[in-house]
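I have been asked to look over a protein record a colleague put together. Alongside the sequence sits a line of tokens, each denoting a local backbone shape. I have pasted the whole thing underneath without changing anything:
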Amino acid sequence: MNRPVVGIIGNFYLLNDEYPAHAGGTMNSAAIAEVSGCMPMLIPSDPSFVSVPELMDLCDGFLFTGGRPNVHPEEYGEPETEAHGAFDRARDTVALSLIRAATERGQPFLGICRGFQEVNVAMGGALYPEIRELPGRMNHRMPPDGTLDEKFELRHTVRFAPGGVFHRLMGAEEVMTNTLHGQGIKTAGDRVVIDGHAEDGTPEAIYLEDAPGFTLAVQWHPEYKAAEDPVSRNLFGAFGEACRAWSQSRTPRPAQVA
């Protein structure tokens, strides 16, 4: 039996400051292949090359990855400022439409870091441009120096709502996670349930209320050494199960772009 196909949203890069490329971290592909048990497929996130209906017919599930560019604040009705950083408007166009369409169709997706923020914005929510500047918040950004292990080390706890979706999935009310993000949820979008918070109150785990499919998203990076981390294994394992269920039961009805 063929493995379910998971489309991994790629990011745009200029290699050597001149060669345009779409790329994705191999740790995302490894988590999907080794822990979810699915086949990873990198998606060039540009509406010039792909369409949402085609992607939904081709893939069984989607992984909305992290990335250095941020969702443009125009997507949630705010002006651009220097604090918002770099942008990728082509990814905004593909990812936000794909999240809305997959939600309505019941097609599974998992959001990570920027992907977590995309889920919130796709549903009408807003973001803070810089979490560390808010009173009482810690610095959630990646350490600027050190090895990859040091940058992705577990740095704070995330506490889930008792009896909630993540509590049941993890089998624990509190877990340790890494943290490598600057932005965060300011206002939750329609149907967005904040199911987990960092110790400083920053939202870290969400899902969409009454959605027919798997719609989980996390602010941390569970793809790092996912096969070795029990929290990551639970998350990617459940996502893989949802993709297999979709693959086995999907019917050829056309995708609707929201």
About this structure: Residues 5-249 form a domain with the Rossmann fold fold (CATH 3.40.50.880). The mean pLDDT is 93. The first helix runs from residue 26 to 36.
